[in-house]
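seq:
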Amino acid sequence: MANEQKTVGWVIYPIGSKPKWPLAFMLGFQQYLIMFGATVSIPLLVGGAMGFPPQELALLIATVFFNSGITTLFQLSRAGTRLPIVQGGSFSFLGPTFAIIGMVAAKGGNWQVQIQQVAACIMFASVFEIVLGYSGIMGKLKKLIGPISIAPTITMIGLALYGIGAPYMATNWVISLITLVAVVVFSQILSRKVKYFLLFPIITAIAVGWLAALIGTLAGWIPATNAANLTNGLQLIKNSPWFWIKPLIPFKWGFPQINAITIAGSFGMLAAYLSSMVESIGDYHSVSRISEAPPPTAKMISKGLGAEGLGCLVAGILQSGNGSTSYTENIGSIGLTRVAARRVIFCGAILMLFIPMIAKFSAILATLPQPVVGAMYVALFGFIASVGLSNLQYVDMNNSRNLFILGLALFGGLSFPAWFGAHPILWGADGSAFRVIGTIISTILSTPMAVSAIIGISLDNTIPGATREERGLAYWEREATDENWEKAEAEWAKMKEGEERKIAGFEAVQK
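struct:
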């Protein structure tokens, strides 16, 4: 039989606690650094495919971060889940985006027309997520989603980028291993003895990796062609202006025209939205679990997805070249730092709004070496995978029916994307309805968390042989209530700036 509720770890600052503002901004900056590596890679891929000039590419990067700040504030507000979850660009949107770029390029459109059309498609398709979210439709489907389907979905979120972690590290094993060892030592060893490392293990490990790369560059130990060499980055810092406001400007690259490409591309984008919604539902459960909070209610899920739709609408208006969704890396950081306070994520969002306007500082962050990013991926995404598997403690794993569903969902989430990612469905001619349908199916089947969720949810609700208790649904039905969240919020409100939990938690860790 499934076990009773257990906590993931001792959270120092719970969701509703209020660390002092200087500390909150430092912790928020750490969250900014954690999401930087994945976030900056998206505009580099999109801008590179479009042929953006270097200066415009820097503006695209700044725009993506500015939009992340806005959408994170949406999620933290009453219009969203109010969970401590960072919002940012999503790799789910890349497939449809590249398809739109190809359609525009085939008609002779330059990079400006391409970014205009991509933005238009993101805006039109965002209405789909806004309606599904705020109408409550997705929240009502929550009764069909249990731990046995959420566990492989979250696990796939953690494992989906396995092909990036070690290859990024391999660009310079010395720098990447220094960074990864620093993460382990700071978060798992020194954090038990020194309060600073309890709160800032990630930002310190990133600094160690960056300094190691800087020393290696200045000393001539790292070749100019190596990914850890910072020579070009230092030149970028020198040539960047101090301030600019361009990231704030809507439709900065021109207002899009509505045509056949817009309509076809918008339908293609629907697959990306479906995939990102599945991933976000898993993230909502994951961040609640890792924060030692009750599971998200149906109302919270609906509002969260609606807020993400609003974020995508803003992304289209700002022409960030990508949609917006919840960020898994930052959920993993909560487990390592034991800090889940909304105030910290709020401070991180404020920094996301202001740092893009300080062009020179953005350039400094842009020099973050690839091997350092790879080490962060290995540490954080591995933690997310383990959090996903921890949901199985509510499921009777002695039941062969449950084992079959879990195994098929996990294997399918790895195997189907491996095929369809390399062999997309190309039905009909470019721009035709059949091509759009094929793109939608290909995008879904090439997204690991979407495949795992589809398999897990469909089989868990159709195959007989297990009670609701054995499926783990009884626990969620009991815990995912407004009353439990009200009790949790009342408990957090009694804390004085989180000091009681911080001191007790630190002493418990030391013991």
